[in-house]
Design goal:
Layout (H helix, E strand, L loop, with lengths): L11 E6 L5 E6 L3 E8 L2 E8 H6 L6
Antiparallel strand pairs: 1-2, 3-4
Amino acid sequence: MAKCAVCGKAAHYGNNVSHSNRKSSRMWKSNIRRVSCKVNGTPRKLYVCASCLKSGKVERA
């Protein structure tokens, strides 16, 4: 679910690294919003990231 319908941005994985250089896994989640958008002239609910909304790649309904 946490994937942008426009650009495909999803969660990224990496490591927390402590001062003593011990590593534990962590995840960065994308800022995904469920918004009503116009798709082929009809309004539909899509999961879109905030950067696509801000840049105007999506026309809101």
